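Action item from last meeting closed. Structure (343 res):
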Protein backbone atom coordinates (compact mmCIF):
# COMPACT_ATOMS: atom_id res chain seq x y z
CA UNK A 1 0.00 0.00 0.00
CA UNK A 2 1.11 3.54 -0.82
CA UNK A 3 0.16 6.68 1.04
CA UNK A 4 0.67 10.42 1.29
CA UNK A 5 1.58 12.08 4.56
CA UNK A 6 1.59 15.78 5.50
CA UNK A 7 0.33 16.87 2.07
CA UNK A 8 -2.70 19.05 1.68
CA UNK A 9 -5.35 17.81 -0.72
CA UNK A 10 -5.05 21.00 -2.75
CA UNK A 11 -1.29 20.41 -3.10
CA UNK A 12 -1.85 16.88 -4.38
CA UNK A 13 -4.46 17.76 -6.98
CA UNK A 14 -2.45 20.73 -8.31
CA UNK A 15 0.93 19.01 -8.32
CA UNK A 16 1.28 19.25 -12.11
CA UNK A 17 3.30 22.20 -13.22
CA UNK A 18 1.61 22.57 -16.60
CA UNK A 19 -1.90 22.49 -15.13
CA UNK A 20 -3.21 20.05 -17.71
CA UNK A 21 -5.98 17.60 -16.85
CA UNK A 22 -8.87 17.60 -14.42
CA UNK A 23 -6.88 18.32 -11.27
CA UNK A 24 -4.82 21.15 -12.69
CA UNK A 25 -7.84 23.44 -12.91
CA UNK A 26 -8.34 23.34 -9.13
CA UNK A 27 -5.92 26.18 -8.50
CA UNK A 28 -7.86 28.45 -10.84
CA UNK A 29 -10.87 28.19 -8.57
CA UNK A 30 -11.67 29.59 -5.14
CA UNK A 31 -9.25 28.49 -2.49
CA UNK A 32 -10.83 26.41 0.25
CA UNK A 33 -8.94 26.06 3.50
CA UNK A 34 -8.34 22.34 3.93
CA UNK A 35 -6.45 20.61 6.69
CA UNK A 36 -4.89 17.17 6.56
CA UNK A 37 -4.96 14.34 9.04
CA UNK A 38 -3.25 10.97 8.94
CA UNK A 39 -5.07 7.65 8.97
CA UNK A 40 -4.71 4.14 7.51
CA UNK A 41 -5.07 4.24 3.73
CA UNK A 42 -7.67 2.18 1.94
CA UNK A 43 -6.61 0.29 -1.16
CA UNK A 44 -8.40 2.75 -3.43
CA UNK A 45 -5.98 5.53 -2.47
CA UNK A 46 -3.15 3.50 -3.93
CA UNK A 47 -4.08 5.44 -7.04
CA UNK A 48 -2.65 8.63 -5.57
CA UNK A 49 0.89 7.35 -6.11
CA UNK A 50 0.21 7.43 -9.82
CA UNK A 51 -0.78 11.08 -9.49
CA UNK A 52 2.73 12.09 -8.39
CA UNK A 53 4.75 9.39 -10.18
CA UNK A 54 3.36 9.11 -13.70
CA UNK A 55 0.95 11.92 -14.53
CA UNK A 56 3.33 14.84 -15.10
CA UNK A 57 5.54 14.60 -18.18
CA UNK A 58 7.93 16.94 -16.31
CA UNK A 59 7.33 15.91 -12.68
CA UNK A 60 8.26 18.07 -9.74
CA UNK A 61 11.32 16.32 -8.24
CA UNK A 62 10.30 17.35 -4.75
CA UNK A 63 7.07 15.42 -5.19
CA UNK A 64 8.45 12.43 -7.08
CA UNK A 65 11.07 11.74 -4.39
CA UNK A 66 8.79 12.32 -1.43
CA UNK A 67 8.84 9.43 1.05
CA UNK A 68 5.69 7.39 1.61
CA UNK A 69 4.56 5.84 4.86
CA UNK A 70 2.42 2.69 4.95
CA UNK A 71 0.38 3.71 7.97
CA UNK A 72 -1.07 7.04 6.95
CA UNK A 73 -3.24 8.71 4.35
CA UNK A 74 -4.61 12.09 3.43
CA UNK A 75 -8.03 13.07 4.65
CA UNK A 76 -9.58 16.43 3.77
CA UNK A 77 -11.59 18.18 6.46
CA UNK A 78 -13.08 21.62 6.83
CA UNK A 79 -11.92 23.79 9.72
CA UNK A 80 -15.38 24.65 11.02
CA UNK A 81 -17.83 22.76 13.21
CA UNK A 82 -21.06 21.36 11.81
CA UNK A 83 -24.59 22.45 12.58
CA UNK A 84 -26.60 20.59 15.14
CA UNK A 85 -29.51 18.24 14.60
CA UNK A 86 -31.98 16.31 16.72
CA UNK A 87 -31.27 13.23 18.85
CA UNK A 88 -27.71 14.38 19.52
CA UNK A 89 -26.77 14.18 15.83
CA UNK A 90 -25.14 16.84 13.72
CA UNK A 91 -24.50 16.99 10.00
CA UNK A 92 -21.01 15.50 10.37
CA UNK A 93 -22.58 12.16 11.34
CA UNK A 94 -23.33 11.63 7.64
CA UNK A 95 -19.92 12.70 6.38
CA UNK A 96 -18.45 9.88 4.30
CA UNK A 97 -14.77 9.37 3.58
CA UNK A 98 -15.68 6.43 1.33
CA UNK A 99 -17.95 8.61 -0.81
CA UNK A 100 -15.29 11.31 -1.00
CA UNK A 101 -12.63 8.80 -2.03
CA UNK A 102 -14.98 7.35 -4.63
CA UNK A 103 -15.34 10.79 -6.21
CA UNK A 104 -11.59 11.45 -6.09
CA UNK A 105 -10.84 8.15 -7.82
CA UNK A 106 -13.39 9.09 -10.48
CA UNK A 107 -11.56 12.42 -10.93
CA UNK A 108 -8.33 10.47 -11.21
CA UNK A 109 -9.74 8.30 -14.01
CA UNK A 110 -10.76 11.39 -15.96
CA UNK A 111 -7.37 12.98 -15.40
CA UNK A 112 -5.50 9.87 -16.55
CA UNK A 113 -7.55 9.71 -19.74
CA UNK A 114 -6.89 13.41 -20.39
CA UNK A 115 -3.15 12.99 -19.86
CA UNK A 116 -2.99 9.98 -22.17
CA UNK A 117 -4.44 12.13 -24.91
CA UNK A 118 -2.12 15.03 -24.05
CA UNK A 119 0.95 12.78 -24.20
CA UNK A 120 -0.15 11.47 -27.60
CA UNK A 121 -0.73 15.01 -28.86
CA UNK A 122 2.84 16.03 -27.98
CA UNK A 123 4.21 12.70 -29.30
CA UNK A 124 5.44 11.47 -25.91
CA UNK A 125 4.52 7.88 -26.74
CA UNK A 126 6.43 6.15 -23.96
CA UNK A 127 4.71 8.27 -21.35
CA UNK A 128 1.37 7.76 -23.10
CA UNK A 129 1.84 3.99 -22.90
CA UNK A 130 2.71 4.17 -19.20
CA UNK A 131 -0.38 6.25 -18.56
CA UNK A 132 -2.57 3.97 -20.64
CA UNK A 133 -1.37 0.94 -18.68
CA UNK A 134 -2.14 2.67 -15.40
CA UNK A 135 -5.53 3.77 -16.70
CA UNK A 136 -6.33 0.15 -17.57
CA UNK A 137 -5.36 -0.94 -14.06
CA UNK A 138 -7.51 1.77 -12.51
CA UNK A 139 -10.50 0.99 -14.72
CA UNK A 140 -10.24 -2.73 -13.97
CA UNK A 141 -10.16 -2.10 -10.23
CA UNK A 142 -13.03 0.39 -10.37
CA UNK A 143 -15.17 -2.07 -12.33
CA UNK A 144 -14.40 -4.79 -9.79
CA UNK A 145 -15.38 -2.51 -6.91
CA UNK A 146 -18.56 -1.42 -8.68
CA UNK A 147 -19.58 -5.01 -9.36
CA UNK A 148 -19.02 -5.96 -5.72
CA UNK A 149 -20.84 -2.85 -4.50
CA UNK A 150 -23.78 -3.20 -6.85
CA UNK A 151 -24.24 -6.91 -6.30
CA UNK A 152 -23.18 -8.03 -9.77
CA UNK A 153 -21.10 -10.74 -8.12
CA UNK A 154 -23.87 -11.65 -5.67
CA UNK A 155 -25.61 -14.05 -8.07
CA UNK A 156 -22.54 -16.24 -8.42
CA UNK A 157 -22.00 -15.93 -4.67
CA UNK A 158 -25.53 -17.23 -4.07
CA UNK A 159 -24.88 -20.17 -6.40
CA UNK A 160 -21.60 -21.02 -4.66
CA UNK A 161 -23.25 -20.92 -1.25
CA UNK A 162 -26.12 -23.09 -2.49
CA UNK A 163 -23.66 -25.77 -3.61
CA UNK A 164 -21.87 -25.57 -0.26
CA UNK A 165 -25.18 -25.98 1.56
CA UNK A 166 -26.00 -29.10 -0.49
CA UNK A 167 -22.63 -30.65 0.39
CA UNK A 168 -23.01 -29.76 4.06
CA UNK A 169 -26.51 -31.26 4.19
CA UNK A 170 -25.10 -34.53 2.82
CA UNK A 171 -22.36 -34.44 5.47
CA UNK A 172 -25.00 -33.70 8.11
CA UNK A 173 -27.04 -36.71 7.06
CA UNK A 174 -23.97 -38.95 7.29
CA UNK A 175 -23.10 -37.54 10.72
CA UNK A 176 -26.62 -38.23 12.04
CA UNK A 177 -26.64 -41.76 10.62
CA UNK A 178 -23.29 -42.47 12.29
CA UNK A 179 -24.58 -40.88 15.53
CA UNK A 180 -21.79 -38.30 15.53
CA UNK A 181 -24.03 -35.65 17.06
CA UNK A 182 -21.24 -33.20 17.93
CA UNK A 183 -20.26 -33.03 14.27
CA UNK A 184 -23.93 -32.84 13.26
CA UNK A 185 -24.46 -29.83 15.52
CA UNK A 186 -21.41 -28.11 14.05
CA UNK A 187 -22.57 -28.79 10.50
CA UNK A 188 -26.07 -27.53 11.33
CA UNK A 189 -24.60 -24.23 12.54
CA UNK A 190 -22.53 -23.89 9.36
CA UNK A 191 -25.62 -24.52 7.23
CA UNK A 192 -27.62 -21.89 9.12
CA UNK A 193 -24.84 -19.33 8.66
CA UNK A 194 -24.52 -20.06 4.93
CA UNK A 195 -28.29 -19.83 4.45
CA UNK A 196 -28.36 -16.41 6.10
CA UNK A 197 -25.43 -15.19 3.98
CA UNK A 198 -27.03 -16.58 0.81
CA UNK A 199 -30.30 -14.80 1.59
CA UNK A 200 -28.47 -11.52 2.19
CA UNK A 201 -26.53 -11.84 -1.07
CA UNK A 202 -29.71 -12.61 -2.99
CA UNK A 203 -31.47 -9.60 -1.46
CA UNK A 204 -28.52 -7.36 -2.35
CA UNK A 205 -28.51 -8.53 -5.94
CA UNK A 206 -32.27 -8.05 -6.23
CA UNK A 207 -32.09 -4.56 -4.72
CA UNK A 208 -29.46 -3.44 -7.21
CA UNK A 209 -31.31 -4.95 -10.16
CA UNK A 210 -34.61 -3.27 -9.26
CA UNK A 211 -33.44 0.02 -7.73
CA UNK A 212 -35.87 2.93 -7.95
CA UNK A 213 -34.49 6.39 -7.15
CA UNK A 214 -36.52 9.44 -6.19
CA UNK A 215 -33.63 11.81 -6.99
CA UNK A 216 -31.31 12.06 -9.98
CA UNK A 217 -27.71 13.02 -10.65
CA UNK A 218 -27.21 16.79 -10.51
CA UNK A 219 -30.49 17.47 -8.74
CA UNK A 220 -30.47 20.10 -6.01
CA UNK A 221 -31.84 18.85 -2.70
CA UNK A 222 -32.29 20.03 0.87
CA UNK A 223 -31.59 17.94 3.96
CA UNK A 224 -34.78 17.27 5.89
CA UNK A 225 -33.08 17.36 9.32
CA UNK A 226 -30.05 19.64 8.98
CA UNK A 227 -31.45 21.96 6.33
CA UNK A 228 -28.34 22.41 4.18
CA UNK A 229 -28.43 22.62 0.38
CA UNK A 230 -26.82 19.82 -1.59
CA UNK A 231 -26.40 18.34 -5.06
CA UNK A 232 -26.68 14.62 -5.88
CA UNK A 233 -23.48 13.24 -7.42
CA UNK A 234 -23.82 9.49 -6.77
CA UNK A 235 -26.28 6.87 -5.59
CA UNK A 236 -26.59 3.34 -4.20
CA UNK A 237 -29.83 1.31 -3.96
CA UNK A 238 -29.04 0.42 -0.34
CA UNK A 239 -26.62 1.73 2.26
CA UNK A 240 -23.10 0.58 1.36
CA UNK A 241 -21.33 2.07 4.36
CA UNK A 242 -19.82 0.16 7.28
CA UNK A 243 -21.82 -0.93 10.29
CA UNK A 244 -19.93 1.56 12.48
CA UNK A 245 -20.82 4.42 10.13
CA UNK A 246 -24.48 3.34 10.15
CA UNK A 247 -24.44 3.24 13.94
CA UNK A 248 -23.00 6.76 14.15
CA UNK A 249 -25.56 8.07 11.64
CA UNK A 250 -28.36 6.18 13.46
CA UNK A 251 -29.53 4.65 10.21
CA UNK A 252 -31.65 2.09 12.07
CA UNK A 253 -33.91 4.92 13.30
CA UNK A 254 -34.86 5.94 9.76
CA UNK A 255 -38.31 4.84 8.56
CA UNK A 256 -36.79 2.53 5.93
CA UNK A 257 -33.50 1.87 7.69
CA UNK A 258 -30.56 0.86 5.50
CA UNK A 259 -32.69 -0.83 2.81
CA UNK A 260 -33.39 2.30 0.81
CA UNK A 261 -31.43 4.39 -1.70
CA UNK A 262 -28.49 6.36 -0.29
CA UNK A 263 -26.97 9.30 -2.14
CA UNK A 264 -23.56 10.94 -2.36
CA UNK A 265 -24.37 14.60 -1.75
CA UNK A 266 -22.11 17.59 -2.33
CA UNK A 267 -22.82 20.14 0.39
CA UNK A 268 -22.81 23.88 -0.32
CA UNK A 269 -19.71 25.19 1.45
CA UNK A 270 -21.46 28.39 2.49
CA UNK A 271 -24.20 26.48 4.32
CA UNK A 272 -22.06 23.88 6.10
CA UNK A 273 -18.33 24.32 5.59
CA UNK A 274 -17.62 21.34 7.83
CA UNK A 275 -18.91 18.93 5.18
CA UNK A 276 -17.39 18.03 1.84
CA UNK A 277 -19.40 14.97 0.82
CA UNK A 278 -22.30 13.49 2.79
CA UNK A 279 -23.88 10.06 2.38
CA UNK A 280 -27.60 10.62 2.89
CA UNK A 281 -30.61 8.32 3.00
CA UNK A 282 -33.49 9.06 0.67
CA UNK A 283 -35.71 9.48 3.75
CA UNK A 284 -33.65 12.54 4.71
CA UNK A 285 -33.76 14.41 1.40
CA UNK A 286 -36.31 16.90 0.05
CA UNK A 287 -36.74 18.62 -3.29
CA UNK A 288 -36.56 22.40 -2.74
CA UNK A 289 -39.85 24.22 -3.21
CA UNK A 290 -39.82 26.40 -5.21
CA UNK A 291 -36.90 25.11 -7.34
CA UNK A 292 -33.61 26.64 -6.29
CA UNK A 293 -31.91 28.46 -9.17
CA UNK A 294 -29.40 30.28 -6.97
CA UNK A 295 -25.65 29.91 -6.69
CA UNK A 296 -24.13 26.69 -5.36
CA UNK A 297 -20.45 26.52 -4.40
CA UNK A 298 -18.40 23.36 -4.05
CA UNK A 299 -14.89 22.53 -5.31
CA UNK A 300 -16.08 19.39 -7.15
CA UNK A 301 -18.92 20.96 -9.13
CA UNK A 302 -16.95 21.91 -12.24
CA UNK A 303 -15.45 18.40 -12.53
CA UNK A 304 -18.74 16.50 -12.28
CA UNK A 305 -21.16 18.76 -14.13
CA UNK A 306 -21.33 20.82 -17.32
CA UNK A 307 -23.30 23.61 -15.63
CA UNK A 308 -26.84 24.40 -14.54
CA UNK A 309 -29.95 23.75 -16.61
CA UNK A 310 -32.98 26.03 -16.92
CA UNK A 311 -34.55 24.54 -13.77
CA UNK A 312 -31.47 25.31 -11.65
CA UNK A 313 -30.21 21.71 -11.38
CA UNK A 314 -26.79 20.61 -12.60
CA UNK A 315 -26.15 18.66 -15.81
CA UNK A 316 -23.91 15.63 -15.10
CA UNK A 317 -21.04 14.92 -17.44
CA UNK A 318 -21.41 11.89 -19.69
CA UNK A 319 -18.86 9.81 -17.74
CA UNK A 320 -20.78 10.35 -14.48
CA UNK A 321 -24.04 9.21 -16.08
CA UNK A 322 -22.29 6.16 -17.47
CA UNK A 323 -20.81 5.32 -14.07
CA UNK A 324 -24.29 5.04 -12.55
CA UNK A 325 -26.05 3.94 -15.76
CA UNK A 326 -28.45 6.88 -15.60
CA UNK A 327 -30.23 8.42 -18.60
CA UNK A 328 -30.07 12.05 -19.61
CA UNK A 329 -32.66 14.21 -17.89
CA UNK A 330 -34.76 16.24 -20.29
CA UNK A 331 -36.51 19.32 -18.89
CA UNK A 332 -40.19 19.40 -19.96
CA UNK A 333 -41.04 22.33 -22.18
CA UNK A 334 -43.35 24.96 -20.76
CA UNK A 335 -46.58 25.61 -22.72
CA UNK A 336 -45.27 29.06 -23.71
CA UNK A 337 -42.07 27.50 -25.05
CA UNK A 338 -44.04 25.01 -27.14
CA UNK A 339 -46.11 27.86 -28.56
CA UNK A 340 -42.95 29.78 -29.45
CA UNK A 341 -41.49 26.70 -31.16
CA UNK A 342 -44.64 26.29 -33.25
CA UNK A 343 -44.43 29.90 -34.21
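Sequence:
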Amino acid sequence: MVVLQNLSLSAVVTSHGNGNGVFGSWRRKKHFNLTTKTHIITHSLLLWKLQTTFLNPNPNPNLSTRKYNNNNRVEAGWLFKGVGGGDGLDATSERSENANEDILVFFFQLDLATRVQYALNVEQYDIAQQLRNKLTEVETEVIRQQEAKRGSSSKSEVQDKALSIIRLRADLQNAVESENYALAAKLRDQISKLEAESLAAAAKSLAHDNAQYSFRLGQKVRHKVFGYKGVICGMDPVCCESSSWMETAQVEKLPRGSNQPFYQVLVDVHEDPNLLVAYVAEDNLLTPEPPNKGQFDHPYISFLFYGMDAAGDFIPIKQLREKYNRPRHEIPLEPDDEGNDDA
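Note appended to the action item: Residues 219-324 form one domain.
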